[in-house]
Amino acid sequence: MTSLAIRLDDNSVSLPLERSHAAGRVASHTASAPEPPTAWAAALGQLTQHDRSSDLDPAPWTNLLCGHVASQTRTSSRRLDDLGHVDGVVQAGVVLQLGLAGWGNVQSRGGAPQRISPGDLLVTPIPSQCQCVVPVESPGWTYAWLRIGHPYMTERLARVVSLSGAHVSIPSDGPLTARLLRLVRAAIGNDFPDPWQAELELFECVLAFERWVRRPRDSGSEVQRFKDEVRSHILAGLPEGIALRDLAAEFGLSRCHFSYLFRRRTGMTLSRFAMAARIDLAATMLRETVEPLKAIASACGFSSPNHFARVFRRLRQASPAAFRQAGC
Q1: What burial class does residue 132 get, using C-beta atoms within 10 Å of its C-beta: 0-12 exposed, 13-18 middle, 19+ buried?
Q2: Contact between 120 and 99 (Cβ < 8 Å)
Q3: Half-sphere exposure of 158 (CA within 13 A, CB side)
Q4: Which residues contact 95 (CB under 8 A, 6 or more apart)?
Q5: Can you tell me the distance from the alpha carbon of 328 to that of 322, in angstroms, rounded to the nearest whole number?
Q6: How many angstroms separate the CA atoms of 103 and 92, rounded?
Q7: How far, in Å, CA of 16 to CA of 215, rounded?
Q8: Averaged pLDDT for residues 244-265
Q9: Which domains are seen in the chain, by residue range?
Q10: Phi, psi angles (nearest 5°) of residue 311
Q11: Quick one: which of 32, 187, 229, 306 has the most CB atoms within 10 Å?
């Protein structure tokens, strides 16, 4: 495993660094690995390319900052402590895992699983009893990881996590994501000119994490953006309709996980939301066009005008004809 390490001071103890080309390398993201959602495809592609063009000796520094991208297949598991260990010895610190494609669970013995999907970031102290597990219903799991052994950075992250929680979601184009991926690329290619630059970049990444979790939150607008994105996919699939499997794939999730996530974030079922989106579209067409009811019903994915009329009346408390006539 190629790794990047930081020397903290002149009293640091020199530790040999492991350099194995085992399953954790980015090149393990093969055709059998899950495809990332569009928002995360570029990031994963850049890491993969960086790995394939890099074959450097590890930096001869101590106190590890290391990282890579790992792909796990269905029903596989690995110990969280295996990420970034040195010659089989687990060094104290924290591991940051950022989902890029598919999904998997990080689970401690007897604890509830923490599901990591694209855009999910989990911060876990190590040594740890946690396992990275890919259930049979998952298409596989690809994630970037960073292992931080810097004592001050580890302590600072622990303080932030104690207030914010260990599991956060981050956007693909945000500054925290850019910092994380920059450190992963540096771990692969030993990009930093000296340990001081590496330590500076690590500090800026920790600050970016703090800024993100402490940002002023408008959860209502975040949920609305999510709903708007889902609605756009639903309407784009009309009149045939989009399959739940295909809709979930747009977000890099399985059908079950996407349905669960949607209900958790919006408070409503996906089927109810999809029906309301189709009726909203029909209402707009009734107000703004002179299309006959049969054509509107068909355009909105209803099998017959009668079915359309029944659903429209239930949701809008008026028949389509009455709604159009009233100019609502």
Answers
A1: buried
A2: yes
A3: 13
A4: 80, 83, 84, 123, 124, 126, 128, 145, 146, 147, 148
A5: 9
A6: 26
A7: 39
A8: 83
A9: 4-213 (2.60.120.280), 219-326 (1.10.10.60)
A10: -70, -40
A11: 187
Locus of tokens 């009329």: 309
Q: pLDDT digits over 200-248, tens only?
A: 888 999 999 998 888 765 556 778 888 898 999 999 999 999 999 889 8
Q: What's the pLDDT band for 191 if we cut at 50, 70, 90?
A: confident
CA distance 95 to 145: 7
SS3 39: helix
Mean pLDDT of the chain: 79
161 CB-near residues (< 8 Å, 6+ apart): 123
- pLDDT on residue 323: 93
Predicted local distance difference test score (pLDDT) of residue 30 = 43
